[in-house]
Write a structure and sequence with these properties.
heterodimer, A: alpha+beta, 3 domains, six-stranded mixed β-barrel, four-stranded antiparallel β-sheet, 11 helices, B: alpha+beta, twelve-stranded mixed β-sheet, 55% helix, 16% strand
């Protein structure tokens, strides 16, 4: 039965080839645009999120300000974090390890060129390895910093670029950090994060010496034991810090954030932008849907007589409805299929162009689910736009229709 | 003649109301989106021009390199400030220090920019010019002020930055030092600048004694001096003055004009991308209209045959169909402009409520006109192929067509 329906629809389809193609073309364009933008958008979002997702999912970060300040970590701090917090937090339930970090901006000079860059410490002592592991840090060339290294730095992967200072920096080269000579012992592997890849790492003693720091810290990173509830730990740390820094609840001059929470605000902004773009692109799909509706409506008018005859020889309303319904669904589905294919190719092309020109490492985030979703969506658009015309056709009065 | 054609086309359009409506709908959506989009970005461009280019066009800015302004990486001292002041082409100069720092009001905290400024009347005027703001309540900072602050617009609203609005003579705290609120600035139009905190340089120095360097120096060049060219020349002079070799300079000099140009370029790219996406829907609408017109040609094949048989020329037939599709395009774009206008106005008032006055849309005449013309042209273009097909029909065949 369904086979008959489809072959009937197919014949109709072919009898007005040009217009069927045009109707489909509308859907093809709309779906291709959406699929391409979704691929690009998801890829970009994943890429940007990766830039900030430096620490593992089990980490909690503490900073010395009540909220986000403009500028580098440490900006806006009134009461800095202290080394002594580390011991107290280490003793809490569910804590695997705790490290403190100093992060500054510094004058970096090489080949007589000056740049201002981030300078960060890698923790000394027993948790150094854990920290490297949590950040997934490894060297591309040379070696990582070790305990006892004095006057040594490890550079992010950006410094492998010869253009950066107009002359290649090698393992063993000397660079000036705030006019003090440091020897480069290694380069990190590319992380795809503009912060890590651009940062200069040194041991805490060197940095604290240079900035004349005592026990102040810009950030404390806490790693929870696998499976321990992060929110419980977060609350415990907050309670302790309120007592330690003598502030009341709701008046905190520090912030404690889980990795998930940090990503969340970031992701929600990106998602909002993405959704806006999808809506704008969705407009064309909507217009394509209107095209299907229009075409089906025309088809009902053109076939009024035919419908009358079909009804006269016993076709039921539901059968007529089905015929038109299938036709519009097919228009949506075929158009959607071609569109998804073209959109997929466009997303691939666009991401590879972006990666080449902007040096990003974005992959189109398209999955089978996206493609199936696009097909389902375009099929539904076809079906929805065909609904009213199909209903119109089904309700035609046989005698009136034949007289048309 | 043309009146007859118009009437004929109109009658035909009216005979297939549903399809005409669907066609109008498909084009109006795209036109409305384009109209709304452009009205917003024009509004932003106008805001920037009105607030900054008009007042900042003759100014150059000296920045610390890196643009981060922390950790005392770059020292721009009083000597440097005087060096800028002494330039022949500079008629006035001022310097700012700013820092992102925590303020407390009734135990609530916020981290805005604290801006330290010189308090001579001409320095205050430079600040007000640069940000396009005026005092709304109370007074501006003046010489002799120390622990007094002037606040941005948003502090005058409750449940915005703080639960309670700040009033004149209230106190806020920065790092345990209490400051007296003596005035409020009017809206800048973006939420970040409208929460700025302004203090005198004396006050700034007692709040942040370690912060010795100016964050920015601003110079106003004499009339007839090109600010861009001056910025370039001054960069070299300043480097020599600071005994730095090329490549080692730890500052940058830019004219406000150049900065605005960069901004406008970015805005242009953004607008282009969004427009590109929106225009896809106009393309789809074109296809829809084309489809309808092909149908119209088919339906009226006999009619065309009759018209030809009684002497209508190919061109006339073509013209009639083109007029028809253009009318659809025009009606669609007129409705689109109307709906786009409504959408943009609504969106604009939402944004103003969210402190983004800078994003208020504007509706210049050229935008309305070009949307109408473009929409009509879309109709015309969509009608080209079907109209040509109609015009080339053979009279005898068409008469026979069923």
């Amino acid at each position: 039965m369904l086979k008959d329906d489809i072959s009937f629809v197919w014949k109709n389809f072919k009898s007005r080839k040009l217009r069927s193609y045009l109707t489909m073309l509308g859907i093809v364009i709309g779906v291709a645009a959406i699929v391409a933008l979704i691929g690009l958008g998801d890829g970009l979002r994943a890429g940007i999120t990766a830039q900030f997702n430096l620490l593992g999912p089990n980490t909690i970060t503490i900073s010395g300000t009540s909220g986000q300040a403009n500028g580098p970590p440490g900006a806006g701090v009134v009461t800095p974090l202290r080394d002594k917090y580390i011991d107290r937090i280490s003793a809490m339930n569910g804590v695997e390890w705790v490290v403190g970090r100093n992060i500054k901006t510094a004058r970096i000079m090489y080949n007589d060129q000056l740049q201002i860059k981030y300078l960060g410490t890698y923790p000394d002592g027993e948790f150094r390895k854990d920290f490297y592991e949590a950040l997934n840090l490894d060297v591309e060339k040379g070696r990582m910093l070790q305990d006892g290294d004095v006057g040594k730095v490890v550079l992010g992967s950006n410094y492998l670029d010869k253009e950066k200072f107009g002359k290649e920096i090698r393992v063993g080269s000397n660079i000036l950090v705030n006019d003090k000579k440091f020897q480069v012992v290694g380069f990190l592997k590319k992380k795809g994060s503009f912060i890590t890849d651009d940062t200069i790492g040194m041991n805490p003693d060197d940095l604290r010496d240079m900035y004349d720091l005592d026990d102040e810290l810009e950030a404390i990173v806490v790693n929870a034991k696998e499976g321990y509830n992060l929110n419980t730990l977060e609350a415990a740390i907050e309670r302790y810090l309120r007592k330690e820094r003598d502030v009341k609840e709701g008046e905190e001059d520090f912030s404690v954030e889980t990795a998930a929470a940090r990503l969340e605000s970031m992701e929600s902004t990106l998602l909002a932008v993405q959704i806006f773009v999808y809506i704008v692109a969705g407009i064309s799909l909507l217009v394509g849907g209107i095209g299907i509706g229009n075409s089906m409506y025309t088809s009902v008018i053109e076939r009024t007589k035919q419908i009358g005859i079909m009804k006269a020889i016993g076709a039921r309303n539901s059968q007529i409805f089905k015929l038109f319904f299938i036709e519009s669904g097919m228009l949506g589905l075929i158009g959607g299929g071609i569109g998804a294919f073209i959109g997929f190719l466009m997303a691939l092309a666009a991401t590879s162009i972006m990666n080449n020109f902007l040096g990003l490492e974005v992959s189109s985030g398209l999955t089978i689910a996206h493609i199936l979703g696009a097909l389902l969506f375009s099929f539904s658009i076809g079906v929805i736009s065909g609904f009213a015309p199909a209903y119109l056709a089904a309700k035609l009065h046989p005698v009136e229709a034949m007289r048309d | 003649m043309i009146k007859d054609y118009l009437k004929y086309a109109w009658n035909n359009i009216m005979q297939r109301k549903v399809r005409t409506f669907l066609n109008i709908l498909s084009i109006l959506i795209g036109i409305a989106a384009v109209f709304a989009l452009v009205s917003f970005s024009e509004g932003l461009e106008w805001y920037v021009q009105d607030n900054f280019e008009k007042l900042g066009g003759d100014k150059v800015i000296v920045f610390q390199k890196g643009g981060i302004g922390e950790d005392n990486n770059v020292m721009i001292s009083d000597q440097d400030f005087n060096f800028l002041k002494k330039q022949n082409d500079i008629i006035e100069a001022t310097g700012f220090k700013f820092k992102s720092a925590e303020i407390t009001f009734k135990k609530e905290r916020e981290i805005p920019w604290i801006i330290g400024l010189e308090t001579a009347p001409e320095d205050v005027r430079m600040l007000e010019d640069m940000s396009g703001i005026e005092i709304m309540e109370g007074r501006a900072l003046k010489e002799g002020d120390k622990l007094n602050v002037v606040l941005g617009y948003r502090y005058t609203k409750s449940n915005d930055i703080f639960k309670k609005r700040i009033k004149l003579n209230d106190n806020i705290e920065i790092g345990n030092i209490s400051l007296d609120v003596i005035g409020f600035y009017d809206k800048v139009g973006n939420p970040d600048d409208d929460r700025n905190v302004y203090v005198s340089m004396d006050g700034y120095e007692s709040l942040f004694p370690d912060d010795e360097s100016y964050t920015q120096l601003i110079g106003q060049v004499a009339p007839r001096v090109d600010p861009g060219a001056f910025a370039e020349k001054f960069e070299e002079k300043f480097r020599k003055f600071r005994n730095q070799k090329e490549g080692q300079e730890d500052f940058t000099v830019d004219s406000v004009e150049d900065l605005m140009e960069t901004f406008n370029n970015i805005l242009g790219i953004l607008q282009g991308v969004l427009m590109g996406i929106v225009l896809i829907s106009v393309l789809v609408a074109t296809v829809n209209i084309m489809n309808t017109m092909f149908t119209a040609v088919l339906e009226r094949t006999q009619e065309i045959g009759v018209m030809k048989a009684i002497g209508a020329e190919n061109n006339t037939i073509m013209l009639v169909f083109l007029i028809e599709s253009s009318i659809i395009g025009f009606m669609g774009s007129a409705a689109g402009v109307l709906i786009g206008w409504m959408l943009a106005s609504m969106g604009g008032s939402v944004l103003v409520a969210l402190n983004y006055d800078m994003l208020k849309p504007i509706f210049p005449f050229w935008l309305i006109a070009s949307c109408l013309i473009a929409g009509t042209l879309v109709g015309t273009v969509a009608g080209l192929m079907p109209a040509r097909r109609a015009s080339l029909l053979k009279p005898v065949d068409s008469l026979r067509y069923e």
